[in-house]
Every structure is written in structure tokens, then in C-alpha cells.
Design a protein that fits this description.
This is beta-lactamase. Its EC number is 3.5.2.6. With 384 residues, the chain is α+β, with helices and mostly antiparallel strands. It is 43% helix and 15% strand. Strands 1, 2, 7, 8, 9 and 10 form a six-stranded antiparallel β-sheet that branches. A hairpin with a 5-residue loop joins β1 and β2. The protein starts with a helix and ends with a helix.
Length: 384
């Protein structure tokens, strides 16, 4: 400390007092600063320092996925549609044909696919579907009894009529009526199911709810068949041949006008393509529960009507379930000669088909031969 003071003293002496004046000025400045210090800059927060983004290398850029090629639409076998069309052109009258492959890539071919054709007893299919849908909903039971009296007898083919006339009122289960309506195409059994379901509107509601397309449902066999003939239904027509007699007594012009009206705008009309698409939905289990689907297909496999229609063209080893329809005749015109069904190949591939002969002058063997050609040709092209 002493050494330091001596050093400063020698400095002051050597400067001759000038240093003293300088030191005084510095002290004054220092005092001023100490009295009012300048604010220090605030420390910076730890904000992230933005750096320029590094240029990605080409290797780091993900490559876009390769474009997905659209799955080619299923197409029918070459030549199948040409053969169907060739035979269809040669067949007299108004005929609709539709073929739908259900499995292995769906496709549809046919002629007059979207036009309405009279269904006749083909429409029993929609009654059966409606009944089983009500069973699935718990609103009906298969073992539920339905009473049938003489007032319930319909017209045309109805084997159940003879039992009612012989025994009086009978009680039939819903399942028994389904069997008779489909396998034997019994009109009284079908009308009894229709009554049990709640009437034609319930069937129409089922068709609309399930989005089955261009499928109409008529007022029931008695009313519809009377209107087609130019008559108004009377219950007495259900006995013996009274319906036929009343129809034959009408003037020919009246009968023809009534039939022409029906054919031009059938109250039970359906398009062939709507029918096969509905059969496709049935086959895929989209309309009923699995149990009800199996039951209906099993019943349809035992259909006894129309053995020489589509069924006769199905090869050995294939399965076939179907429902026929047959309309009235006003010579030389036959109407509503139909068959619809599902044909299953040995490998499990299923085809829905519908042949709807709205009106024709062809003989019954010719009609059968045309139907057989359709089913046989589909099977032939499946095997190629």
C-alpha cells in the first residue's frame, strides 16, 4: 500500500499539478454518472433463434405412392350376350331377359332390361319375402295359424280349395302357406298370406324399404285377375269354373280392351333387371335374416311348377331355385309366361336370371325351349 502511494506521489510531482486538475475533472464526471446511472439493457429472453431452413436433400423427400390402377369392371363372357340376343330376336312377342352374375365380379346382360312386364305368380316371391321379414321382426311366427274359409278361396290354380270345400274352414300355419304358395303356386295360399301380412300396401312398403327398384305389386289375385278379364270380382267365381264361364260370356272386344290395358301398364309389372338384382340381394343375405334366407331358398328349390322352363336347361351338378308365373290367354295371345331363379354352379358361383314373356303367339314348347336356351347357355359360358 505504501509502495502504491509513493508511486502516485512521484507521478503528481512529475506532472507539475496538471494531473491534479485532470483528476478533479474525472472525479466530477464520475460523480455525475454515479448520481444518475444510465439504464442497463434488459437481458434477452430465451426466444428460439430462427435459423434458415436447411434445404432438404432429394433423398429425404418422400416419394408419392404409385397411382392405383382402377379395378377393371367385370364383363360377361365374350359371345354370351350375342347368343342371347340372337335367340331373343327370333322369339315372337314381347319378351324381357336379364342375367346377373352374383359372385366373382357382378355383371348384368339382357334385353328390355328396364321395361315393365306382367309378373303374375312371380309376385308371390315378394309376398313370401314380406312374410319372412315380419317373422324376422317378431311380428309373425312361422307356426302361427291362419284360418281359411270358403270366403277366402281365390281363382285359378289353388289346390287348397278342395280341402276347404270338402272340410269347411281349415287352419294352416304360416310356414305351410309359404310352402303351398311357392312350391305349388297356390293362389288361395298366397292371398291368405297377403291378408295375414296386412294387405298389398305392406308388400309395397317392403319393396320400397329394401330398395328393390321397378317392382310393382297388385291388389291380390282375385281383384287383379278379374280386372285383366274385364270382370268385377264376385266370390261365387271361386267355385268350379264359374270364373271361366263369366269371362267367356263377355264380348270379345271388352275382353281384349281389358287385356290390352293390363299389358300396356301392368299393375303387377316389374323390370327384368330389378327382379335379378332383388334375387341377388336375397342370395347375399341382404333382405332377410340368415335363417329366413335359408328357409325361402330351400322352399324355392322345391318348386314343382314349370319344370320344363328355366330349370330344364340347368346342367347336372348345378343347383336351381325358382318361381314361375303364368297369365291369362286370349287366343292367339298368351300372357305373363315367366320364370325367375338363382342358378348355382358346382364351384359356388351364382347367377340370377329372369325370363319374362309378356305376350306371345309362340307355343308352350317354344316358350320352354327359349327359357332352357337361356339357362343352358349361361352354364355353358361359365364352364369355358
Amino acid at each position: 500500500m505504501f509502495y502504491q502511494n509513493a508511486k502516485y506521489l512521484r507521478f503528481f510531482r512529475s506532472t507539475g499539478g496538471a494531473a491534479i486538475a485532470w483528476l478533479a475533472i474525472v472525479s466530477m464526471l464520475t460523480a455525475c454518472v454515479a448520481a444518475d446511472p444510465l439504464p442497463l439493457p434488459k437481458p434477452k429472453t430465451n426466444a428460439p433463434i430462427s435459423k434458415p431452413a436447411a434445404k432438404p436433400s432429394l433423398a429425404s423427400i418422400p416419394k408419392p405412392p404409385p397411382p392405383v390402377s382402377p379395378k377393371p369392371a367385370a364383363v360377361p363372357p365374350i359371345g354370351l350376350e350375342n347368343l342371347i340376343q340372337e335367340q331373343w330376336k327370333q322369339f315372337p312377342g314381347k319378351t324381357g331377359v336379364a342375367i346377373l352374375r352374383i359372385d366373382g365380379g357382378e355383371w348384368v346382360i339382357g334385353r328390355r332390361l328396364d321395361e315393365l312386364f306382367p309378373q303374375q305368380s312371380v309376385s308371390k316371391t315378394w309376398v313370401a319375402l314380406t312374410i319372412l321379414d315380419l317373422v324376422d321382426q317378431g311380428k309373425l311366427r312361422l307356426d302361427q295359424k291362419v284360418r281359411i274359409t270358403a270366403d277366402d278361396i281365390a281363382v285359378f290354380h289353388q289346390p287348397i280349395r278342395e280341402r276347404v270345400l270338402a272340410k269347411g274352414p281349415i287352419d294352416e300355419s304360416v310356414q305351410s302357406l309359404l310352402e303351398q304358395s311357392i312350391t305349388a303356386s297356390d293362389n288361395t295360399a298366397n292371398d291368405s298370406l297377403l291378408r295375414t301380412a296386412g294387405g298389398p300396401q305392406v308388400v309395397r312398403s317392403f319393396i320400397a324399404r329394401k330398395k328393390l327398384g321397378a317392382i310393382r305389386f297388385g291388389p291380390g289375385e282375385r281383384v287383379m285377375q278379374s280386372e285383366i278379364a274385364g270382370l268385377q270380382w264376385k266370390q261365387e267365381y271361386s267355385v268350379g269354373r264359374r270364373f271361366y264361364s263369366a269371362r267367356e260370356e263377355l264380348p270379345l272386344a271388352q275382353r281384349k280392351a281389358a287385356l290390352d290395358r293390363y299389358l300396356a301398364d301392368p299393375v303387377d309389372g316389374a323390370s327384368p333387371v330389378a327382379i335379378v338384382r332383388a334375387l341377388g340381394k336375397l342370395a347375399r343375405g341382404e333382405l332377410l335374416s340368415p335363417t329366413s334366407t335359408r328357409l325361402l331358398l330351400d322352399i324355392m328349390s322345391r318348386t314343382s311348377s314349370g319344370p320344363n322352363r328355366l330349370k330344364a336347361g340347368v346342367p347336372v351338378g348345378w343347383k336351381f331355385v325358382h318361381k314361375t308365373g303364368t297369365g291369362q290367354i286370349l287366343s292367339p295371345i298368351s300372357t305373363g309366361y315367366n320364370d325367375i331363379g338363382i342358378m348355382t354352379a358346382p364351384d359356388g358361383t351364382r347367377y340370377a336370371m329372369a325370363v319374362m314373356i309378356g305376350s306371345t303367339t309362340a307355343s308352350i314348347p317354344e316358350r320352354m325351349a327359349f327359357m332352357q336356351f337361356v339357362s343352358r347357355t349361361v352354364a355353358t359360358y361359365h364352364q369355358r
